[in-house]
Amino acid sequence: xxxxxxxxxxxxxxxxxxxxxxxxxxxxxxxxxxxxxxxxxxxxxxxxxxxxxxxxxxxxxxxxxxxxxxxxxxxxxxxx
Length: 80
Description:
By secondary structure, the protein is an all-alpha fold. The chain is built from 2 helices and no strands. The protein has one domain. It is 84% helix and 0% strand.
């Protein structure tokens, strides 16, 4: 196996982990949002069908950047 193919595999793996993290984060955020607001909305007589999907994915992207930064910093510390 060449270095290029190893590098490509690592990039693909990283992209997969990133996608899975973001999708899971957004789904958890939306489920938590719905659960937290459902009873209040029903008591008002109008279940809110609008979900903050864009917010969920924006927050997920920001969270991923923080996780990635922490991983990089931890890796640098270990390699010193």
